[in-house]
């Protein structure tokens, strides 16, 4: 493999704990208006680290999962200000801020990372990010699935500096990395559908689910059509992927991902969130709702919104606010159960 990434030791330092049950919550970055992404890829940004963040863990009693039919509230201050159509994607909660990607369907799918503060104000944290799904590392850096470089990138939200962690498999660029999750052991799992393949030249012959250990990219599954949302169970023993018309669950044993089995049939699946009890919050894009299902795929609740939907994440002081992104909108719903930040 001839991927563009830094050394294994440096990358393992950068891709540390983003746990299912132990979230690292850094000091939120300062409010930087319209920060521009440097045009050159930063090679040494790993040296520009934040102070170690405080830790947050799932409570012993995480709370009660939702049931029945619910409706999320649109956050009107976060409504899109773009004149053209687009999507909000990849929500991740850091400190007291919800970060999300904001991209349009124009040529190249131009994207920026927005920051929704706890008081409802929205600023542009990183312009020209090329991003879709987002995650976080232990130092408060943003990890981004970036279609503009067909890569997994790492952003310093203070400065907009960017590193390319990995950008190809077997000598060819990815299609359009979409969503990702990190394990306690530093394994990065990500999906690579073809939705934004036209954003840059090249691509793969198949859409796949990958894992990246800091040195090697390997294939988990190449049988799902346009795999999209990806999440880990709180105990890190199951990887969930939404794609095609299913949610597929893959067992993980001693770091090895096994053969997946379909646990749920879905319509136009997109991103997912997970609560501290292990329930999945699966978005169905065109149906404009989130289906809440048990780890075995039994539906327990449905959360409606008023536009097409893309992804979800938990945030707020107790991580009991479910944030939902979609077509130029962000919604929220206060729940009685804590969940994970992306």
Can you walk me through this structure?
With 342 residues, the chain is mainly beta. The protein has a single domain, classed as Neuraminidase. It has one helix and 30 strands. The chain has one helix at residues 8-14; strands at residues 22-25, 54-57, 68-71, 73-74, 86-94, 97-104, 111-117, 122-126, 131-136, 142-146, 151-155, 162-166, 168-169, 172-173, 180-182, 188-192, 208-212, 217-221, 227-232, 238-243, 246-253, 256-257, 261-265, 269-274, 280-284, 289-293, 299-304, 309-315, 321-326, 330-334. A five-stranded mixed sheet has the order 3-27-26-25-24, with no helix packed on it. Strands 19, 20, 21, 22 and 23 form a five-stranded antiparallel sheet that branches. Strand 10 (142-146) and strand 11 (151-155) form a beta hairpin. The protein starts with 7 loop residues before the first helix and ends in an 8-residue tail after the last strand. Residues 1-53 have low confidence and may be disordered.
């Amino acid at each position: 493999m001839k991927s563009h990434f830094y050394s294994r030791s440096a990358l393992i330092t950068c891709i540390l704990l983003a746990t299912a049950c132990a979230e690292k919550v850094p000091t939120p970055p300062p409010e930087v208006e319209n920060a521009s992404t440097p045009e050159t890829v930063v090679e040494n940004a790993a040296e520009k680290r934040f102070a170690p963040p405080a830790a947050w863990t799932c409570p012993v009693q995480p709370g009660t999962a939702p049931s029945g039919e619910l409706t999320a509230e649109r956050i009107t201050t976060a409504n899109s200000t773009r004149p053209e159509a687009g999507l909000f994607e990849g929500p991740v909660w850091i400190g007291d801020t919800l970060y999300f990607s904001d991209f349009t369907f124009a040529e190249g799918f131009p994207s920026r990372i927005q920051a929704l503060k706890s008081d409802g104000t929205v600023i542009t944290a990183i312009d020209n990010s090329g991003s879709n799904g987002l995650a976080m590392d232990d130092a408060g850096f943003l990890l981004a699935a970036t279609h503009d470089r067909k890569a997994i990138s790492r952003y310093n939200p203070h400065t907009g500096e960017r590193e390319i962690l990995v950008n190809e498999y077997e000598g060819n660029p990815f299609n359009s990395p979409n969503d990702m999750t990190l394990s306690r052991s530093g394994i990065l799992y990500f999906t690579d559908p073809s939705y934004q393949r036209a954003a840059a030249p090249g691509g793969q012959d198949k859409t796949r689910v990958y894992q990246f250990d800091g040195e090697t990219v390997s294939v988990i599954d190449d049988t799902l059509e346009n795999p999209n949302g990806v999440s880990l169970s709180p105990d890190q023993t199951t990887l969930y992927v939404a794609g095609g018309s299913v949610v597929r669950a893959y067992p993980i044993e001693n770091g090895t991902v096994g053969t997946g089995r379909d646990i749920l049939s879905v319509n136009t699946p997109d991103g997912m969130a997970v609560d501290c009890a292990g329930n999945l919050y699966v978005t169905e894009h065109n149906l404009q709702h989130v289906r809440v299902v048990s780890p075995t795929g039994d539906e327990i609740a449905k959360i409606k919104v008023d536009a097409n939907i893309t992804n979800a994440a938990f945030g707020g002081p107790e991580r009991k606010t479910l944030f939902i992104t979609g077509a130029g909108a962000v919604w929220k719903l206060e729940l009685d159960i804590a969940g994970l930040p992306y």
